[in-house]
Amino acid sequence: MFTLHQQSKQTKARTGTLKTDHGEIQTPIFMPVGTLGTVKAVDQDDLLNKVKAQIILGNTYHLYLRPGNEIMQSAGGLHKFMGWDEPILTDSGGYQIFSLSDIRELKEKGATFKSHLDGSKHLFTPENVVETQRILGSDIMMILDECPPYPAERDYVENSMKLTHRWAKRGRKHFLKTKPLYGHNQLQFGIVQGGVHKDLRKESSQYMASLDFEGLAIGGLSVGEPTELMYDITDFNTDHLPENKPRYLMGVGTPANLLQNIAYGVDMFDCVMPTRNARNGMIFTRHGKVNVRNAKWKHHHKPFDTDFPSELCHRYNMSYIHHLIKSNEILGLELTSKHNLTFYLWLMQVVKERINEGTFGEWYQDMMKTVDRKV
RNA sequence: GAGCCCGUAGCUCAGUCGGUUAGAGCGCUAGGUUGUGGCCCUGGAGGCCGUGGGUUCAAUUCCCAUCGGGCUCC
Description:
alpha/beta; TIM Barrel; 2 domains; three-stranded antiparallel beta sheet; globular; RNA-binding
């Protein structure tokens, strides 16, 4: 299912292929976030043909609350529902229970929470999130986990990790005894926790590896800890993950974050940053970060970078993009969102080429500095 | 011609029984955003309080005049 191709010599970066029934994913890869069955402001055709996304995310928590499992099942699953025939990964909703719900209750059985839509009470268990993700029909489903905040007491993090482990075992068992609903195979990823404590990270990695998931995620990072600390933990964590399984760093991050974590051996990423920041007027480019709201673009009657393959860059003047964002026009959100995703996927493409040619190690640190500066 | 109301930030307006450094929303401007409730959060700039005079220890506030805008009556 996952095949490694090339290993960078100076770093732990690697290229690989993850096979799903909806197509192959070339890693390292960035996965655009499409919480509610849509990558906000970008339609599926553009996502495939312009952004060149290989896989997108959906969210169990959001899709379970609306439209709900009944609609989803009668639609024939999320692929058919949203008209996307490429791979989909669904997050279990563990993160949302902790970030969105005001009232939640954690018990051995599962997590009870109140819907952010209507206040109604719901229970997510390791088993029923598998069921819901069977109904969604995602190519990759995530286990239910608890994502502790940062900072948190070590005892809390340790107990939380152990609960996640018990849930993981139940989730894996339920996954193995149930079957896909729509004729295509599904994979299940475990999630390593342990906060910023290396001994816990090691323990969690070993435990998750023992359950023989098809892939392993590093969870519980990019929740407010300093960037250097996140790097340190990822670097440590990948040393304790199996070589032959894809590694997915959840919720990360900036282009620089991606480059550094790829150097530490991560294969997959997702993050709201390219799309959310796009809607707030920030674009990421190979020359650095650009705030298109800045007055300096008001009179800039030319494109930002005609050599870059996004519509924003080769077709429209920055003065127009500035105007669209300042006016809160829908087209502004679309163009900046498409641009940022195009850039992220472009960056992953260059990364793969660099790793395969053996020039990643000497290239990525300079690129990190470049993409992180302000234009 | 007479009477009344209004004039405060770029815009729309609060405020003041006379008393620290005159406020808000929007706009402007600069940051932020990391397993997504798009239009959110944080900071900053910006005021001869229409103008001139008077009373007072102290006036955006009270008085007079004047300019500008509006309403009513003859």
